[in-house]
Write a sequence for this structure.
């Protein structure tokens, strides 16, 4: 299924995909980190958005 470019957020908001430019923009803004930092966090903690939030000391829903 092709991406819906009108949807401004990731289709699966539980996972971070650093291979899509628009998802990188979304997650860097959402988490308040640079692209480089986000890539490092994903490498260290995996693609789970909750894991990344915990690593940043942010509240997990």
């Amino acid at each position: 299924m092709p991406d819906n470019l009108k949807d401004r957020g990731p289709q699966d908001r539980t996972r971070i995909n650093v291979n899509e430019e628009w998802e990188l923009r979304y997650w860097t803004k959402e988490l308040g980190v640079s692209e480089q930092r986000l890539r490092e966090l994903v490498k260290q903690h995996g693609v789970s958005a909750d894991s990344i939030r915990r690593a940043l000391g942010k509240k997990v829903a």
In short: The CA atoms of residues 13 and 49 lie 7 Å apart. The radius of gyration is 11 Å. The longest helix spans residues 21-31. The mean pLDDT is 88.
